[in-house]
Design goal:
74% of the residues lie in helices and 1% in strands. It has a two-stranded antiparallel sheet with strand order 1-2. α5 runs parallel beside α7. The termini are far apart. The longest helix is centred in the last third of the chain and has 15 residues. By secondary structure, it is mainly α. β1 and β2 form a beta hairpin. Keywords: Repeat, TPR repeat.
């Protein structure tokens, strides 16, 4: 048994008392091939410090064997010693048999550090050396995808799929449908998904598949993928919003509401879930649940005016005028949107607070002067106010241009002129 084998056997038995001695004897006595195998096994077992000593010894004995430099460089990169590693990698000359391997390690390093264009250049150089090397083609495809060169990525993935279904643990059909989707070719993407759906195991790919299926109105399939995503990872918060959209497309109010409520349990800061959950509840005439959702949304998102307006609309519908007014008490008037002024006008009118109602109607008017529903409410309010004949007349003229068939308003206008 070689000293290298004795060292590995001791490590397997977790006997570390002789590791330094055995390593020295291995370096002094074992054949280079055995030492190379030892270093590889040590890396696999996580004993990279020992592996580094072996590779350094081999490099000292065989300075022209560049593969040992590359293996050592990979360990150094994992240890965060980038400068030392790059010195070794750049020391491998273009005429070396290991130059391609050096370029691949460099490309991986630059990509992992966000220097995509530098990584791409390294791979293009590698492609010139070995144009049929699939690992190079895959690396270029990945960088094309990440850099938004989707047509080039598509061509490379299609070529790789002629020979592989997966590459470096990446499902190439996943990449294919996602690239097609990026190009807006959703029908083609959905066909790839349908043909290979059982092979989509990655949770992010399932989410992307659901997006594609929604885009081509295959809502049932989208729902299946989204539920699988949530089953795998209940805190995958983006899936809930998409699931709500899918059930909305199906007009399934009950499931839409449940999905929104489930999503809020994991993300209390998503305004869309509050909004759509409340809308679904209202379509089922469940005003209480809609109120509770919107009140909770405002509690966690007090700056979200849209949720306040949605709750305000509900309060107006329920004639909860005091609650509606209280909803905006703490906000400055200049921060209020026209819809808020309209809603407040209605509530103040219902509470017989005419001066405030008048002010709110006038503040809302510039935005809604061409809205027949608003004008009709404003007309009815001012028609009960003293000395407002001319205002009512002007409002009626604008209204009747929008709704000339409204006989009630026409009659009111005629009566004003007759007087």
């Amino acid at each position: 048994m070689s000293y290298s084998e004795q060292l590995l056997d001791a490590i397997e038995r977790q006997d570390f008392s002789q590791e330094k001695i055995l390593l020295k004897k291995a370096l002094d006595s074992d054949e280079p091939e055995i030492l190379a195998s030892l270093a590889e096994n040590l890396v696999g077992l996580g004993f990279t410090d020992l592996a580094k000593e072996v590779y350094r010894s081999l490099i000292a004995r065989f300075p022209k064997e560049d593969l040992f430099k590359i293996y050592l460089a990979e360990i150094l990169l994992n240890d965060g010693k980038d400068e030392d590693a790059l010195t070794l990698l750049y020391g491998v000359k273009p005429d070396s048999a290991a130059y391609l391997d050096s370029l691949l390690v460099q490309a991986d390093y630059y990509q992992s550090n966000g220097l995509l264009e530098t990584a791409y250049k390294k791979l293009l150089e590698a492609a010139k050396i070995s144009p049929d090397e699939d690992v190079v083609k895959f690396g270029l495809a990945e960088l094309d995808y990440l850099s938004g060169r989707y047509e080039q990525a598509l061509s490379r993935y299609q070529d790789l799929l002629k020979r592989h279904k997966t590459f470096s643990e990446v499902n190439l059909n996943d990449r294919l449908f996602q690239t097609l989707a990026k190009l807006g070719r959703y029908e083609e993407a959905s066909r790839v998904i349908s043909q290979n759906g059982n092979e989509i195991l990655d949770i992010d790919s399932k989410y992307q598949a659901a997006l594609v299926m929604l885009a081509v109105h295959k809502d049932e399939q989208a729902i299946i993928y989204l539920n699988e995503v949530i089953d795998q990872s209940p805190d995958y918060v983006n899936a809930y919003r998409l699931l709500v959209d899918a059930y909305e497309q199906q007009h399934n109010n009950e499931q839409e509401l449940r999905s929104a409520q489930a999503g809020i349990a994991y993300n209390e800061l998503d305004p869309v879930l509050y909004k759509k959950g409340a809308q679904a509840a209202l379509r089922m005439n469940d005003f209480k649940t809609a109120e509770e959702l919107l009140q909770k949304g405002i509690k966690f998102l007090p700056e979200n005016i849209a949720l306040r307006i949605q709750l305000s609309n509900l309060y107006v519908k329920e004639n909860k005028d005091e609650e509606n007014i209280a909803l905006f008490k703490q906000l400055d008037d200049e921060d209020l949107e026209p819809q808020v002024h309209w809603n407040l006008a209605i509530s103040y009118q219902n509470l017989d607070q005419s001066a405030k109602a008048k002010s709110e109607f006038l503040l809302a008017y510039p935005e809604f002067k061409d809205n027949s529903a608003f004008l009709k409410q404003m007309i009815r309010f001012f028609n009960t106010e003293p000395n407002a004949k001319e205002i009512v007349k002007e409002l009626l003229e604008k209204y009747l241009k929008l709704e000339p068939e409204d006989t009630e308003m026409q009659e009111m206008y005629d009566n004003l002129n007759f007087k």
